[in-house]
Structure formats: C-alpha cells, structure tokens
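ESCALATION

Customer reports they have been waiting on this structure for their group meeting. Please prioritize. Original submission:
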Amino acid sequence: MTVLITYFLTALFVSFLCSLLESVLLSLSFAHVSVLEKEGKRSGIIMAELKGNINRPLAAILTINTIANTVGAVGVGAQTHLIYGNEWVGLASGILTLSILFFSEIIPKTIGAVYSKSLVAFTAITIRWLMVIAWPFVVLSEYMSQMINPGENGVESKASREELLAMAEISEDEGSIDEQEGDIIENLIKLDKIPVEEVMTPRSVVFALDKNETVGEVVKKNSPIAFSRIPVYDKDLDHIIGFVNRYTLVNKQAEDQFHIKIGELMKPIHTVLEKESVSEVLDQFVKRRQQLFIVMDEFGTTTGLISLEDAIETLLGVEIVDEHDRVVDMRKFASAKMKKKNRIKIE
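Update from on-call: job pushed to the front of the queue and completed.
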C-alpha cells in the first residue's frame, strides 16, 4: 500500500512542479525579465538565457513531466493489480488521471500565471537543474526543432508595436502608469508613422524675413518679435536660405546697428521632406543640433516649417505655449485663415 501511495504522490508532485515551471516561464514578459537582468539579479540573468532559447527549458520540463506521468501510471496500475486485483486497475487509472488534471495541470498553471513575477528565482534555478537531469533529451529536442524550423532556432519572438501599445494601455488601466505617461508611450511608438506634414506649421502662416531687410526695418514692423527663430528667404518662400535668431536682432537693436541686413546675420537651415516621419526628423534635430527645419514637397516647393518644439509636442500630445505665443495651434490658425480667404473670394 505504501508503494502505491508513493507512486501516486510522486507522479502528482513532479507533474505539479513541471506545470508550475512551464506556466511561469511562458507567463513572464521580456520586459520584466529585462528589468531583473539590468538590476544584476541572478534570477533575471538565468531567465533571460532560458527565454532566449526557450526550446531547451521546455524540452527539459516536458521530458521530466512525461517520464513522471508514465512511471506513475505504470506503478499505480501494477500496485493496484497486486493489492486489489485486476478489476480495480481501471478505477485507479481514472483517479490518477483526474488528480493529475486538477492538481497537476489546472491548479499549478493558474498559480504560475498569477504569481509568475514572485516565482522567478525559484523557476530559473529549478529549470536549470531539470535541464542538467534531462540533458540528452534537451539536445535531441533542439536538434529536431532545428530540422523542423531552422530559421527561428528556438528564440522566442519579441513584442510587436501592437503588443507594446496594448501593454501600455493595460498598465494605464491597472494604475502602474498614469494617463500622461501612457499617452507619451503610445505617441513614442506611433512617432515613426506620423508624417511631418501632419504636425508642421503650414506655409500660409509662416513668418519669414527678406534677406535684404535691415534690422531697423524688421524691428519697426514686427516689434515685439514673437518667434525665437525666423526663416530668411531670397525673393520668396520657395527660396528660404537660412534663419535668424530673435536674440541676435535684439542685440543689434541694442547696439544701434539698425543698418545691418538680415542676410548678414542669418545661419544655414536644413530642409526635410513633408513625407518624412516625425521620428526621423527628431533624430535629425538631435544630430544636427538645430531646432528649426524647412519642409518641402517632392517638387522642391516650401510647404511649411517644423521645429523641435513641434516634434516634442507630438511626443507629449500637448501644445507647448509660452508668454510670447499669440496663437496656440498654428495649423488651426492656418485652416481658419484659409477659410476666411475663400469666403472673401466667394463674396
């Protein structure tokens, strides 16, 4: 009787352990494992290795689980036959099967999924030992997996953009991050899908200066100057050749150098295409250490301008306004200006 109970409980325990380990291994996200790894925790380092080639730990777990269930079933059946006779073998097998289903499948996998983060250390170390015990089967399984699918080599796929967006929304709903943080994460992921033309200041409301104007003329017509960086053109807006800083104009005004032409004070300006993504342009802002670009279409016509502030506003999802801004949203202002112009034409 003792041998029968030993076979029964051993099969349940080993199967419970394997199901728990499998559930934790598959439930842990790459993000959480990466955090543990960066913190230098041994469990995170081991788990990163395991998830990096997930075929190996799964092969070890399934091998041990299969052996335990097989030996348990054979042992329980044989002991039942010796003690109670052949007519009780079917009942014993049924009890063992149901017990494994509930106590070694449903319950441990639920525990593993719910408490996966708390069980990282235990899971990582235990799976390592199981891989040593079942090493021949692990090697055989890896070889067979490579034959079936040589491209993946057992590496678990990384999270897609859609999955990252879903994770951000879930974290926001659970209160792990606040609404603003969630919006920034979502905007950051979508940044390379947003073209410059959707966030730029349209040509119709671009404030620019003629290179031949003098400091005195500019200050007289535009005081106070509302923009920190102002495009400079030669003849028209399709020939923007640089930009001038507001503080440069203010300094020249303070020095009474009203005769100096804007073209003498300007700095070179970079051009981007309206179909480029905000992500690409933001990268160029950083590399070039500039804060204002001219936007052109494929034919070389100026369609607007984009500033570093525009890119950051797109990332944050809010308008950045200071005390000098007369208009909060330049795109809405341009649209309203165009509607007013069309209405005058009709009348």
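Sent to customer with the following note: Strands lie at 201-202, 209-210, 229-234, 236-245, 270-273, 292-296, 302-307.
Escalation resolved.
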